[in-house]
Amino acid sequence: ELGNREFRTAGLVAEHLRSLGFDEVRTGVAHTGVVGVLRGGKPGGVVALRADMDGLPVTEQVELPFASRARALWNGEEVGVMHACGHD
Questions:
Q1: What is the 3-state secondary structure (H, E, C) of 23-76?
Q2: pTM for this structure?
Q3: What pLDDT, on the 0 to 100 scale, is given for residue 36?
């Protein structure tokens, strides 16, 4: 799903965090973000993990089983959607 439209993905992430027993799961953070809080049993430091889940209006051009086949409207045009960040 394109950025700020990841409603299905955010729902899947939230559902999975709840199934793992997270102490708190917040949705709708900055529109489609999800925050999961897992409290440890001992005092100490805090660890934060961040993950991207948005797609870009780019058509994936590889023939692999996990290649994105998603399509969406972007600027009035149907485009391919894939997670294509340079750090991946």
A1: CEEEEEECCCEEEEECCCCCCCCCCCCCCCCCEECCCCCCCCCCCCCCEEEECC
A2: 0.81
A3: 96
